[in-house]
Write a structure and sequence with these properties.
Elements lengths: L2 E5 L5 H16 L5 H11 L2 H9 L3 E8 L2 E10 L11 E9 L8 H15 L4 E7 L3 H9 L3 E10 L2 E11 L2
Parallel strand pairs: 4-5
Antiparallel strand pairs: 1-2, 2-3, 3-4, 5-7, 6-7
Length: 172
């Protein structure tokens, strides 16, 4: 099994959009209305928005490849790019997605370890993320990886208010 993690650049915006659409839909379409999913995809993953995020110096995207096939991605935020004001000692994992058919192969752990390495290199003391309260598989994964719930916040999927658990892991 050959695994490669590569940082994304602005030239990757179309590939990023494609994998973002695919993985988000796979993860959430069965528990949300088609209209809400499509509205979210159009606002969060349109090319203009993704290019803006790719150019933000406080955000980073990484693709993960399995045997040269793009199978997932990671988005990290620091400082004022974080979706919640957690402070400068934190690095946020905003997105970590693996295509459904490639899940349970340790790829999420590879991306999570990449995030931890970056956080440590940037002298961050903690990493955090938000995970939908109904995404039991992800919550179980993060618990297994040493994250604990420290709070919650609202997340809007179209017109539906949902709750994300805020989970954190101390690195030092």
């Amino acid at each position: 099994m050959n695994i490669e993690i590569r940082k994304c650049s602005i030239e990757d915006s179309h590939k990023l959009q494609e994998i973002s659409y695919e993985t988000f839909k796979e993860t959430f379409e069965n528990q949300n209305s088609e209209e809400n999913i499509n509205n979210y995809l159009d606002s969060a993953f349109n090319l203009e928005q993704l290019k803006k995020e790719l150019l933000n110096s406080c955000s980073q995207f990484f693709f993960i490849y399995l045997n040269t096939k793009l199978v997932g991605y990671l988005k990290l935020n620091v400082n004022n790019a974080q979706t919640e004001d957690m402070g400068y000692e934190y690095l946020e994992i905003e997105r970590i997605y693996i295509k459904r058919e490639y899940q349970n192969n340790g790829l999420g752990k590879h991306l999570l370890n990449k995030a931890i390495d970056i956080a440590i290199n940037d002298n961050k003391k903690k990493i955090w993320l938000g995970v939908w309260e109904k995404n039991k598989n992800a919550i179980d994964f993060y618990n297994k990886m040493g994250f604990v719930q420290i709070g919650s916040h609202s997340f809007y999927m179209g017109d539906e208010k949902q709750t994300d658990f805020i989970m954190s892991k101390t690195l030092v």
